[in-house]
## 1
Amino acid sequence: MYIGECNVPCLCPYCYSKLKSVPNLDYVPNKRRKDFYYTSDGFCIVSQKFKDFCDEGRYGSLDFQKLNTSDFYFFEPRDIFKTNIRWIPFNVFKIWCNVCKNYAELTGGVLKDESFKLETNDFIMRTDNFYGKYENKHPMIVVGLETERKMKDFGLKGIDFDNVYG
């Protein structure tokens, strides 16, 4: 969304880590065959079909911001899936920033925090931590196993499902 631009909003002024996803609503999507994808700088873009799935399933606490140039949306769940980033050897975290109190780089798998309890197996949430490097970081989207089945039955394209551990 912001590749090549100088004034990217919500970056730490010291380490340039993305602290919050603020979309550029004038962004023009180029992958119109998929219902779900990330831009190269870590913004989640979804199709009208994906939004229709969420509306029909009555998944609450989801933000859809329509892009001005197409029928696509910037997407981010508001509900938080609590994770444990200290899980070794799977996660790699580098360069602690004392300004934003965050790691500039966090990569690896998603491990559910032991204290976090789920009430259902049909949900759409985002991780409490941003994964990736610097300005390309983004929260991972986490869905329940029942939601995964429903997404596949609905025929949504472009979604890769990986396991959450814990």
Note: Residues 116 and 135 are 28 Å apart (CA to CA).
## 2
Amino acid sequence: MRGLLRNNIYSMESNIKMSVGISLVLMAVAWLARERVVSMVLAMQIFVFIANMGTSLQVDENSRWAKFELTLPVRRSAIIEAKYLSFLFLILLGILVSIPTCAGLVLMGRESYLSQIMYGYEFGISLAVITIALIYPPLLKLGAEKSELLLCLGAVGAIVLMGVVSIAIFIMETFMIKNPEPGYSLAGVPTVVFGFGLLALSFLVSRKIYEKKEF
């Protein structure tokens, strides 16, 4: 498992460095921008790292590792587990890189941005997790050359699903609470929970696809 994880990280190394650079630029934007931009900056700092998942598959296919790993003395389910752990690592890396952004805002006396900071994390984590859940099973079927297109479609699909979940929650609150707050938020804790639930389902589907994969 460690070897599989290391291979996944090494195949994404150059793009991870590029994502860190983009995150640093976004950090400067957050420090100079107004409150409403902060949440989107934090979300992008998290999301930019999962764009590496397609790169990992492309490198594996170009080096023929994708075929070679099928011959390794490991369970095929372990290969998929390593992939999904790598995706979670990318999300965690995005969160860690975004922490200096929040620290800088606090040091500048912008504690009033707390609600925007929380929304940024909820939106970014939900968007990243749901996008991965939607696109990885099709990537296993269609191949890495479709990764960029699927990433765009997955991000759009993720936003649509987040909107559906948020509207559903607001409708439920309307019937359960006498005086619900007007409007609804595209992201929140329920959306994050939904995202991880969808990721678990995606893992099961991907494992099934990979177990039937031929040389």
Note: The radius of gyration is 19 Å.
## 3
Amino acid sequence: MVPFIYDDVKIGIGSWRYPQHLIIIKDNKQGIYSIQERKVILEPAIDNKFHLHTDTIGENAIGFHTVDGTYGFINFEGNILFHIEKFCIEGKRSSISASVYFRYGGFKNGIASVDRGNFCEEYDKNGNLIKKKWTRPLSDDTPYDYKEETWDAMTDGMYGDMPSNFDGDYSFMGN
């Protein structure tokens, strides 16, 4: 499938289910081979220290991560467009790891969306943060009336069980 002129061939990160691209390696540089098109779409030009996410290919750029927790995008010439540090939140070093996911693919119309912790961030190709949106659901997106929930827990138990030896008179518990 791939010519024997490369040192190694491997499946890219993010394409385990249905691989569409392979990573081709020659002289410690990586390139990309399209399985569907059966051709090389990027000759080896990206340093081998970057782990490429082949499901993020878009507008001549690809997502990457390194072993030290740096994520970002690199162009097809091997130049880093921008990077995000896993242990850096809002520009400050942190002991808390803010997970980074490329769930939405790569660049589309000059913008890449990246999941970081409870937020989705949108970046341009210069690494400027364009938009940050809270994505974690609040209480499973169900509006709770905590006063009512507390009343139910006190009177019926959390699972609808009646307290043992209880005569059914709730008047002493309030409104």
Note: The two ends are 74 Å apart (CA to CA).
## 4
Amino acid sequence: MNRHLRYTLLTPLAVASVALSPALAHAASAEQASDAAAAAPLAPACKLDNGSSASEYDITLTGFTPNQKVKIRGPENINTSVDQQGSFTEQDVKKGTYHVEFGGDKNHKNRQSVNCTKPARVTPVDISDVDITSASTTPAVDVDCSVAQSVTFKATLTGTGTGNTKVTWFSNTKSSTPTVKFTAPTTETTFVTKSAPRTAGGPAPTVSVRVAVGDASDSMQFTLKCKP
């Protein structure tokens, strides 16, 4: 009698276990998929960046099997192994076209190869023209000219190439030489300066500026619109 009762009590537990199995199976499947995604190796890649001189590159390998032997082929040949993260870096090698050989057996069967990507070619910046296109205060009119007001000037640089260039601004009260990232054919730059306070009974303050980039320059004179 006691044995029969024991079986009866175990039966609901067995049913609950069967009912939970699909949920547990789904959780286990999701965990396995997550582990597989985390373990999936990156695709082997080789990247060339500009080195410390105009005639050199830096080589970076990523995504290889940890500690794998690789052969870098190009103007310079390098036989090495990647680290435990599947990466390798070599600085200041001769410029040129490179590729990486890896895998396979000693007879080169099933050997793989990946080409090294070169950095984008950068054209030196050459500014041919600069124009001050606008000047403004906030608000645009009826400002309190008895106190110094901020005046914003905008200029457009015109030229060729892509890269950083220095722009020199001058005003009655301030000078500045910001570095502007220029992208051909035109790029805008701004300059904020202060007006001089208006003297009692005097005319509206005027702000004069000049902008220069190399041999290109422009100037503007802006008069504030004062409130009565």
Note: Residues 1-20, 36-40 have pLDDT under 50 and may be disordered.
